């Protein structure tokens, strides 16, 4: 399944976020600058991409047509996603944040009942809620067990307060990201491509990031050159490349909840890339036997997702085109 490969590739670039955010915090940088600078740096890149594709006018029209939903769901999908992640990096290592973040593969499945689709019946259109995909939920739970095994060998090095501060904000982000992403897919309803949607969400979230910049300036002062450079790298790798690849993958399967869950489950591979990245850049120890078993379970779970999606596609054939609406 091409979408799963896209999701794994996106996860590799997403992993840069966890490694460099931790690196900036260790060097004394503020989480407020780490989060806000990423999205500010994203804007010129996205504008350039959309401009050369000659379709920026549609973005402006969509933003004008529904400014409040754009502001609200961009806040959920970007601000409530990334600000808690960078905050958690101040209190916990990258592997803890990345591992806890994998709850998002369950979050994406559990938010499904918040959406509905319309089917045509003999008596007219009928609205139905999406159901939680039980098979996808089971496989995603297996993947989470693998993630927990990776974390097991290092959990003893943390105090209770460090673990709490490194986990709770990430749990908020884990549900905010898939919810905001899916709500925006429904709001755009295929009228915008991935680059346009990412640009629109980034622009809509800018007021919140600018406010955070002002707070950071008064509380901790200006960011260092090192933090500016690393935030720029995060913006390119994670904000532009990874987000775009992931949104392309989810856009392609947005009408099929099972496939959507499978693509979202590929984010579990971020833990693998973070472990390797922290070992190389921050001199963290390599995983032990228990963690290696967890890695094997993650790979097994993603393979199960891939086969279950293929099996569902072969049974049902082409998917009917349904129109999803926001509640």
From TrEMBL:
Domain of life: Bacteria
Membrane is among the record's keywords: yes
Iron in keyword set: no
InterPro entries: EmrE
Pfam entry (one): EmrE
Keywords, alphabetical: Membrane, Transmembrane, Transmembrane helix
Coiled coil: none
Positions of transmembrane segments: 37-56, 68-89, 95-116, 136-152, 158-177, 198-222, 228-249, 261-284, 290-313
Name the UniProt record assigns to this protein: Putative multidrug resistance efflux transporter
Lineage of the species this protein comes from: Bacteria, Bacillati, Bacillota, Bacilli, Bacillales
């Amino acid at each position: 399944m091409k979408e799963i490969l896209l999701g794994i590739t996106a996860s590799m670039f997403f992993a840069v976020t966890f490694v460099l955010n931790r690196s900036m915090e260790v060097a004394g940088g503020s989480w407020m600058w780490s989060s806000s600078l990423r999205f500010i740096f994203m804007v010129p890149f996205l504008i350039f991409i959309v401009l050369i594709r000659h379709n920026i006018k549609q973005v402006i029209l969509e933003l004008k047509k529904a400014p409040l939903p754009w502001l609200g769901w961009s806040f959920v999908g970007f601000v409530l996603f990334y600000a808690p992640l960078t905050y958690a990096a101040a209190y916990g290592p990258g592997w803890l944040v990345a591992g806890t973040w994998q709850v998002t593969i369950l979050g994406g499945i559990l938010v499904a009942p918040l959406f509905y689709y319309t089917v045509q019946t003999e008596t007219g259109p009928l609205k139905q809620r999406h159901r939680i995909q039980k098979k996808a939920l089971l496989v995603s739970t297996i993947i989470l067990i693998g993630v927990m095994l990776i974390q097991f060998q290092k959990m003893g090095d943390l105090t209770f307060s460090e673990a709490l501060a490194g986990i709770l904000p990430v749990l908020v982000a884990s549900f905010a990201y898939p919810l905001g992403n899916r709500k925006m897919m429904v709001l755009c309803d295929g009228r915008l491509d991935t680059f346009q949607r990412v640009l629109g969400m980034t622009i809509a979230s800018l007021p919140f990031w600018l406010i955070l910049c002002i707070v950071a300036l008064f509380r901790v002062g200006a960011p260092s050159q090192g933090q500016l450079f690393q935030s720029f790298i995060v913006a390119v790798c994670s904000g532009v490349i990874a987000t775009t690849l992931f949104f392309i993958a989810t856009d392609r399967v947005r009408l099929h909840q099972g496939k959507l869950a499978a693509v979202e489950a590929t984010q579990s591979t971020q833990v693998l890339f973070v472990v390797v990245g922290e070992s190389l850049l921050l001199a963290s120890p390599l995983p032990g036997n228990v963690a290696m078993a967890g890695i094997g379970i993650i790979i097994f779970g993603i393979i199960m997702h891939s086969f279950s999606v293929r099996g569902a596609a072969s049974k049902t054939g082409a998917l009917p085109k349904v129109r999803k609406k926001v509640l």
